[in-house]
C-alpha cells in the first residue's frame, strides 16, 4: 500500500434504506468500476483495503459517513473523488477526499449532529418535551440489541437538543412527486449526541422524549446525520474530522511544492480489449 | 394519462419492514423511461423475493431488450414479504414496480417468469395487491394481459384460470413480437377490446391463450380432449427457440443491486439447450437443440459485464457447461486474462470426468480449491442407466480421486431419490459409493483430511420428459429410504465422519409434483392454499405441506381425482396429458419409446456427437444444433 485516502460520503434519499453491508458492497463495486487501484489484503481470500468508521444505521440518511481506502498507486484525491462519485449509484455520493495525515479516523469521531423530522408533531409539543428531557439528569430507555434487551441512559450523551420548527430538513431527496403540501404539522429536532457505549441513537433519544413527555409521533421519524467529528466542548458543536489530515497535507505540499503523482490514477481494470474480437 | 409514483405512499411503510432496501429500486443499470412516451408498457415479475428474483437472467434479458425498443417501457416487480404485504393492504398501497414505483395494474402486460411452480401462490398475492382480478375471466379493459413464461410455463394448466396467456421457450423474440401486436391494436383504437387482442396473439401460433381451449374430461377424471373453441386458434402452440445466440449477447447492462441477493456474480450463458438426454431433466428436454455462444462472444460478454457491473465473480452458465465445444480454450483464455485481477471465475461443474477437473483447476488458478461438485444423480449403476446418466462407478471414483490428488479437499456429490423403478438398494448404493470415494481419496492423497458431501433431492416427474408418464414415489417411501441411508452413514466408524449428508424431506416434492403435472382443476387448489395464507412456497419456513393437502382435499372433493391421482399414479401411453397441446418439439412417440427404453436400461447417446436419433425437435421447430469449435484464441486484455 502506498497511499491512504480518507473519504467523506453521503447516503441520501431512498438509499438511506441500505444497510452497512449493502453500502460496503456498493462501494467495492464502484471502486472496481472506476478502476481505482485499491490495495488488497494478503491471504486466502484477499479483500480490498477499505475500512469504515461509525456507519449510520439502516433507515437513517447521512451527509457525513467516513471511510478510508488503501491504494497501491498514488492518486490525486480530487480526481479520485470525482471518479468514485461518478461510479457510485445516485444517492451514494463521494463528497470529500483527503490524504490521511495519520492517526485513527474513528478516534476523531466523538459525536454526531442529527436532524430528526417528526411529521404530525407540533413544534410547540416537541419544544415542551425537549425542555422536560433537558431538565433531567438521566433518562433511561430500553432497546432490543443483539445481546437482548438493554437499559441505558440517553440524557448524558445529549450535548445539544433544539427544535427547529416546520420545513424540509436539508439533504432530503427532492423527488417527492405527487406529495400534497398539506397543513400537517412537522417538528424538526436538531440533536448533538456524543458517541458513547452503548451507542445512543436518535431513536433512543426519541424514546426518551416519549418517556418524559409522551411525545409519540404518528409516523416513523425521518433522520439524517449532518456531521460527525471531534466535539468542541466550548461551543457544543462539531468540527470537521478531516481538518487534521488537510493540515498535514498542506504542510507537506508546502515542503514539496506539488502533489506527488497527481493524475496517475487511471483505470486499471476493465480497460478496452485488444482487437482480437 | 400519466401515472404517479407510489413511492411517497410506500416510503413511510419502509422503516417498519425487514430489509427495506429491496423495495426502493435504483439498481445500477436499471432504467426508468417516461411513461407518456411509451406506447406499450411491460411489468415483469419474478414471483419470489427480490433477493432471489433480481439476479434472474430471464427477467434481466427481457427487461433490457424491451427497454431498448423505442416506444416500449419495461419495469420490474418482485414478491413482497408478508410484513410489507400486510402494511400495503392496511394503507391501500398496490403492487408496485421497483423502477419507478408505478402500479402494476397500469401496465399493458404483466409478464411473470416461472422457473419453478412454487411461485404460483406469490403470483396470486401480486395480482390481488395490484387490484387485478385473480381470474382471467373477470378482467376488464383496465387490467393488463397477465402473461406467464419460463420453464414452468410449458405446463401452465394449473394456472390457466389466472393467466391470460403463456409463452413457451426463449422469450427474446416473442416478447418483441407481442409488443408489436399490442402496439398495433392500441394504435387502431383497441378494436374488439381485450378478447380481440388475445385472439390476435393466439392466432399468431406463438402465444397460448388458455381460455380459447376447452378441456373435456372422462367420467373417471382423465382428460378426454383439449380443443380450441374459437376459429383461427391453432390446435397446438409451439415453443420459441432463439437461433444464433451471438446475435443476442444479453445482458449487456447487468443489474447491480444494493441489497444482497443469492447470486452476487455476473453470469454468461455459454450455451442454451442440452442433448445429453438425462430422462429426469425437463430443462434438457424443452430447450433442445444445443446452441452455443462462440468463444469470442463469451469473452466479450464477460469483459463487458465485469466492466459494467463491478462484480468480482463471473459464472459461465448453461445446463452442462463443460460440454461447450471450446470450453478448454475459454477456461484457459479467461483465466489468463483475469489472472491477478481479483476477478474469479466459476463453472457449475457437474460432468463426471477428468476433463472437468482440468477446467476447475484453470478456474481456481489464482483462487482457492475449496469444493468441486459432480452429479451422478443415481446411486447404483442400474439407476444411472434408467435415468440415462452415463457414468460408471469406475469413472466416478477415478475422477473424484484425481480431484483429491490435485489438491481439492471437498467434493460434493448430487443424487436424486424417488426415481422410477428405484428400490431400497439403489439408494443404499449411494452410501457405498461415498465410502469408496473416500477410501480411494485417502489412498491417493495419503491423508484423512478429505471430505465428501452427499446431497440428495427428491425426484419430481415433469411434463415433456420421458418420465412424464411415471408414478411419483410417495413421500413416505422417499423419507424412509433417506433415513436408512443417513443411519447407515452415521453408523460407519471408518468413513462416516468424512461424509456429509444433506437432504430435504419428500413432502414438498409431492406438492411440486401436483403443480408440475396438474391440469386446470389444480388451479382451485392453488387458490385455496393462497386464501388460507400460502405464500413463498419455495421457502421451507413458509411452506406448509398440511395446508396444501387440506386445501387439495377440499378443492378437489367433487372432481373424483385427488393428489395421489396427480402424483403417484402412472399414466398409460394413450392418456391425454394436460400439456399435450403444447409443443416443445419433442415427438411423443420418441418420448414414450425413451420411457420404455429406460425401463429396460437402454441408454441414448448425445446427438451432438452421434447421429440424430429423431427426438423430433429440429424438424418440428426448424432448428439445428449450433456448436463450434471456431478455432479462435483469446488474447490478453490490454490495459490502457
Ligand atoms: C442460476 C440458476 C439458479 C440460481 C438463480 C436463480 C435466479 N434467480 O435466476 C439459484 C441458485 C438461486 C437457483 C435456484 C433454483 N433453481 Co435454478 N437454475 C439456475 C440455472 C443454472 C440458470 C438459470 C438461468 O439464468 N437461465 C437462463 C435464462 C435466460 O433462462 P430463463 O430464465 O429460462 O428465461 C428465458 C425463457 O424461459 C423466457 N422467459 C422466462 N421468463 C419469461 C417471462 C415471460 C413473460 C416471457 C415472455 C418469457 C420468459 O425468456 C428467457 C430468455 O429466453 C438453471 C439452469 C439453466 N441453465 O437454465 C437452473 C434451473 C432453472 N433451476 C432449477 C431449479 C429446480 C431451481 C430450484 C427450484 C432448486 C431448488 N430445489 O431449490 C431453485 C428455485 C429458486 C426460486 N425460488 O426461484 C431447474 C428448473 C427445472 C425445470 N423445470 O426445468 C433448472 C433448469 C436446473 C435444472 N437443470 O434442473 N437456480
Ligand atoms: S432432432 Fe436430432 S439433432 Fe435435433 S435435438 Fe433431437 S436428436 Fe438432436
Task: Write up this protein.
The complex is a heterodimer of chains A (277) and B (640). Chain A is an alpha+beta fold and 277 residues long. Chain A has two domains: 3-107 and 241-276, 2-Layer Sandwich (Alpha-Beta Plaits); 110-174 and 181-229, 2-Layer Sandwich (Alpha-Beta Plaits). Chain A contains five helices and twelve strands. Chain A has helices at residues 20-34, 77-87, 123-135, 202-213, 243-256, and strands at residues 3-11, 50-53, 61-71, 92-99, 111-119, 140-145, 148-153, 158-163, 186-194, 222-229, 231-232, 237-238. In chain A, the strands form three sheets. In chain A, strands 1, 2, 3, 4, 5, 8, 9 and 10 form an eight-stranded mixed beta sheet that branches. In chain A, helix 1 (20-34) crosses helix 2 and helix 3 packs across helix 4 (202-213). The two termini of chain A are 35 Å apart. With 640 residues, chain B is α/β, with parallel strands linked by helices. Chain B contains 21 helices and 18 strands. Chain B has helices spanning 7-10, 50-53, 57-68, 82-91, 120-130, 172-187, 193-203, 282-286, 295-309, 327-338, 354-363, 381-387, 393-405, 424-445, 475-491, 507-516, 522-531, 545-555, 563-566, 588-599, 617-621; strands spanning 40-49, 72-79, 109-113, 145-149, 165-166, 213-217, 223-228, 237-238, 266-269, 271-272, 291-292, 313-317, 344-346, 371-377, 410-417, 451-458, 499-503, 582-583. In chain B, strands 2-1-3-4-5 form a five-stranded parallel beta sheet, with helices on both faces. A four-stranded parallel beta sheet of chain B has the order 14-15-16-17, with helices on one face. The mean pLDDT of chain B is 94. Chains A and B meet through helix 1 of A and helix 9 of B. Bound molecules: cobalamin and iron/sulfur cluster.
Amino acid at each position: 500500500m502506498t497511499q491512504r485516502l480518507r473519504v467523506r460520503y453521503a447516503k441520501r434519499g431512498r438509499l438511506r434504506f441500505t444497510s452497512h453491508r449493502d453500502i460496503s458492497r456498493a462501494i467495492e463495486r464502484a471502486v472496481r468500476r472506476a478502476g481505482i487501484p485499491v490495495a488488497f489484503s494478503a491471504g486466502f481470500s484477499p479483500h480490498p483495503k477499505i475500512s469504515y468508521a461509525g456507519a449510520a444505521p439502516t433507515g437513517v440518511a447521512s451527509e457525513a459517513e467516513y471511510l478510508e481506502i488503501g491504494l497501491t498507486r498514488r492518486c490525486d484525491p480530487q480526481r479520485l473523488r470525482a471518479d468514485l462519485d461518478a461510479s457510485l449509484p445516485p444517492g451514494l455520493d463521494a463528497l470529500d477526499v483527503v490524504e490521511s495525515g495519520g492517526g485513527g479516523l474513528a478516534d476523531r469521531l466523538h459525536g454526531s449532529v442529527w436532524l430528526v423530522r417528526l411529521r404530525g408533531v407540533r413544534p410547540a409539543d416537541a419544544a415542551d418535551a425537549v425542555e422536560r428531557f433537558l431538565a433531567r439528569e438521566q433518562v433511561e430507555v430500553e432497546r432490543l440489541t443483539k445481546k437482548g434487551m438493554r437499559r441505558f441512559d440517553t440524557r448524558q450523551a445529549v450535548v445539544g437538543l433544539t427544535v427547529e420548527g416546520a420545513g424540509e430538513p436539508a439533504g432530503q431527496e427532492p423527488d417527492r412527486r405527487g406529495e400534497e403540501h398539506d397543513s400537517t404539522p412537522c417538528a424538526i429536532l436538531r440533536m448533538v449526541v456524543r458517541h458513547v457505549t452503548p451507542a445512543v441513537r436518535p431513536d433512543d433519544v426519541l424514546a426518551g422524549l416519549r418517556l418524559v413527555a409522551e411525545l409519540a409521533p404518528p409516523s416513523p421519524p425521518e433522520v439524517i446525520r449532518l456531521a460527525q467529528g471531534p466535539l468542541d466542548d466550548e461551543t457544543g458543536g462539531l468540527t470537521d474530522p478531516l481538518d487534521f489530515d488537510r493540515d498535514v497535507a498542506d504542510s507537506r505540499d508546502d515542503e514539496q511544492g506539488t502533489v506527488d503523482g497527481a493524475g496517475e490514477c487511471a483505470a486499471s481494470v476493465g480497460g478496452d480489449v485488444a482487437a482480437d474480437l | 394519462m400519466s401515472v404517479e409514483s407510489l413511492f411517497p405512499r410506500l416510503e413511510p411503510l419502509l422503516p417498519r419492514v425487514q430489509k427495506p432496501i429491496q423495495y426502493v429500486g435504483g439498481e445500477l443499470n436499471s432504467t426508468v423511461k417516461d411513461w407518456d412516451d411509451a406506447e406499450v408498457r411491460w411489468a415483469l415479475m419474478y414471483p419470489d423475493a427480490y433477493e432471489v428474483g433480481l439476479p434472474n437472467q430471464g427477467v434481466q434479458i427481457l427487461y433490457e431488450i424491451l427497454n431498448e425498443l423505442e416506444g416500449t417501457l419495461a419495469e420490474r416487480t418482485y414478491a413482497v414479504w408478508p410484513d410489507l404485504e400486510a402494511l400495503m393492504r392496511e394503507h391501500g398501497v398496490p403492487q408496485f414496480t421497483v423502477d419507478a414505483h408505478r402500479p402494476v395494474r397500469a401496465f399493458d402486460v404483466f409478464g411473470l417468469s416461472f422457473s419453478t411452480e412454487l411461485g404460483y401462490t406469490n403470483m396470486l398475492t401480486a395480482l390481488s395487491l395490484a387490484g387485478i382480478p385473480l381470474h382471467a375471466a373477470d378482467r376488464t379493459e383496465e387490467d393488463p394481459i397477465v402473461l406467464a413464461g419460463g420453464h414452468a410455463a410449458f405446463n401452465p394448466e394449473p394456472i390457466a384460470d389466472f393467466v391470460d396467456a403463456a409463452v413457451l421457450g426463449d422469450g427474446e423474440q416473442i416478447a418483441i413480437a407481442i409488443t408489436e401486436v399490442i402496439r398495433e391494436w392500441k394504435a387502431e383504437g383497441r378494436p374488439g377490446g381485450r378478447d380481440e387482442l388475445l385472439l390476435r396473439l393466439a392466432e399468431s401460433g406463438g402465444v397460448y391463450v388458455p381460455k380459447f381451449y376447452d378441456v373435456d374430461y372422462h367420467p373417471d377424471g382423465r382428460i378426454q380432449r383439449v380443443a380450441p373453441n374459437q376459429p383461427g386458434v391453432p390446435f397446438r402452440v409451439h415453443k420459441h427457440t432463439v437461433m444464433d445466440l451471438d446475435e443476442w449477447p444479453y445482458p449487456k447492462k447487468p443489474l447491480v443491486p444494493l441489497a444482497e441477493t443469492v447470486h452476487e456474480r455476473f453470469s454468461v450463458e455459454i450455451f442454451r439447450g442440452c442433448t445429453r438426454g438425462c430422462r429426469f431433466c425437463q430443462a434438457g428436454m424443452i430447450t433442445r437443440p444445443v446452441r452455443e455462444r462462440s468463444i469470442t462472444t463469451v469473452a466479450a460478454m464477460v469483459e463487458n459485464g465485469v466492466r459494467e457491473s463491478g462484480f468480482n465473480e463471473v459464472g459461465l452458465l448453461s445446463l452442462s457447461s463443460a460440454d461447450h465445444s471450446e470450453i478448454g480454450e475459454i477456461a484457459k483464455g479467461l483465466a489468463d486474462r483475469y489472472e491477478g485481477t481479483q476477478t474469479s471465475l466459476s463453472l457449475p461443474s457437474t460432468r463426471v470426468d477428468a476433463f472437468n477437473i482440468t477446467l476447475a483447476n484453470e478456474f481456481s488458478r489464482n483462487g482457492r480449491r475449496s469444493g468441486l461438485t459432480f452429479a451422478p444423480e443415481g446411486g447404483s449403476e442400474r439407476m444411472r442407466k434408467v435415468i440415462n446418466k452415463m457414468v460408471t462407478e469406475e469413472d466416478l471414483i477415478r475422477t473424484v480421486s484425481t480431484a483429491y490428488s490435485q489438491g481439492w479437499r471437498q467434493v460434493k456429490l448430487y443424487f436424486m431419490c424417488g426415481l422410477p423403478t428405484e428400490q431400497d438398494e439403489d439408494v443404499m448404493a449411494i452410501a457405498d459409493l461415498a465410502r469408496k470415494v473416500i477410501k480411494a481419496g485417502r489412498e491417493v492423497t495419503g491423508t484423512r483430511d478429505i471430505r465428501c458431501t452427499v446431497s440428495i433431492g427428491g425426484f419430481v416427474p415433469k411434463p415433456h420428459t420421458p418420465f412424464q408418464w411415471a408414478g411419483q414415489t410417495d413421500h413416505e417411501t422417499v423419507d424412509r429410504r433417506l433415513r436408512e441411508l443417513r443411519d447407515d452413514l452415521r453408523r460407519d466408524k471408518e468413513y462416516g465422519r468424512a461424509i456429509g449428508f444433506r437432504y430435504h424431506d419428500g413432502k414438498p416434492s409431492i406438492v411440486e409434483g401436483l403443480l408440475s403435472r396438474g391440469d386446470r382443476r389444480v388451479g382451485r387448489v392453488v387458490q385455496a392454499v393462497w386464501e388460507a395464507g400460502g405464500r413463498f412456497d419455495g421457502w421451507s419456513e413458509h411452506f406448509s405441506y398440511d395446508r396444501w393437502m387440506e386445501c387439495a382435499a377440499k378443492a378437489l372433493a367433487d372432481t373424483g381425482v385427488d393428489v395421489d391421482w396427480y402424483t403417484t399414479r402412472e399414466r398409460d401411453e394413450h392418456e391425454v396429458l394436460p400439456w399435450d397441446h403444447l409443443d416443445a418439439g419433442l415427438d411423443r412417440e420418441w418420448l414414450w419409446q425413451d420411457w420404455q427404453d429406460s425401463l429396460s436400461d437402454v441408454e441414448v447417446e448425445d446427438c451432438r456427437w452421434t447421429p440424430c436419433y429423431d427426438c423430433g425437435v429440429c424438424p418440428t421447430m426448424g432448428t439445428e444444433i449450433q456448436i463450434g469449435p471456431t478455432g479462435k484464441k483469446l488474447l490478453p486484455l490490454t490495459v490502457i
